[in-house]
Design a protein that fits this description.
It holds the Pfam family Rce1-like. The chain has a domain of about 150 residues. It is mainly alpha-helical.
Length: about 220
């Protein structure tokens, strides 16, 4: 019952909260980035503590949660491919940033500030912690845990669909394009986990993508 309660929160309550936050009218100024980072770390940390208790209570193993070390086959090859692809992405992103014209840099910085990216050293340090919680924590909760708990009731691909829709919706609604892309990527990640049974390669991608964006913002500030 405890596992189903957490699943209900992840599938219904958390996405509904984020949608409500985006749709309700509000004239309050945005909180400073550090406050938002700390709030997100706290929220994910509490959910992970609940997950840890559930794993202990139900006897879920590391392998059950998709955390077995990838020694061979698809999990290992996907991890290698993810590491190579993310390395190429980081290098390509650095080259692109260095060649970017000044006016484009200003536009990107303005969009990054509005999107909550770190813009100073203190924010960058805390954001580094946050991306680990985001990339590791959400993969464990929305992929490893939800597929494990929901598959006996609705099948593996039913669980993939529910997980993907829930996690995509939990990103909130900024525009039709953003919402559609969030759901699509969440479905692809859930399908990737269902096919390989490993979270490690997904965690690498999920951590490196936002980290690269933050590092680029930091580089842009130095190039000003």
């Amino acid at each position: 019952m405890i596992a189903l309660a957490l699943a209900f929160y992840l599938v219904f309550v958390l996405p509904a909260r984020h949608l409500w936050s985006d749709f309700r009218p509000s004239d309050k100024p945005k909180r400073p980035p550090i406050q938002r980072y700390l709030s997100s770390i706290r929220d994910i940390g509490l959910l992970l503590l609940a997950l840890l208790f559930i794993c202990y209570w139900n006897g879920y193993s590391v392998a059950d949660m998709g955390l077995a070390l990838p020694a061979s086959g698809a999990p290992l090859w996907c991890l290698i491919a993810a590491a190579v692809a993310m390395t190429a992405l980081v290098i390509g992103s650095f080259i692109h940033t260095d060649k970017m014209p000044p006016e484009k840099r200003e536009q990107l910085l303005a969009a990054s500030r509005d999107g909550g990216m770190p813009t100073n050293a203190a924010e960058m340090r805390l954001f580094a912690v946050l991306v680990v919680f985001i990339g590791g924590g959400w993969e464990l909760l929305y992929r490893g845990f939800l597929l494990l708990v929901l598959s006996p009731y609705i099948g593996t691909w039913g669980a993939v669909a529910v997980s993907g829709l829930a996690y995509g919706t939990a990103h909130g609604y900024k525009s039709a394009k953003q919402f559609s892309l969030s759901v699509l990527m969440a479905l692809l990640f859930a399908a990737g986990y269902a096919l390989t049974g490993s979270l490690w390669w997904l965690m690498v991608i999920h951590i490196v993508l936002p980290a690269t964006n933050a590092i680029n913002v930091h580089r842009l500030l130095k190039l000003q």
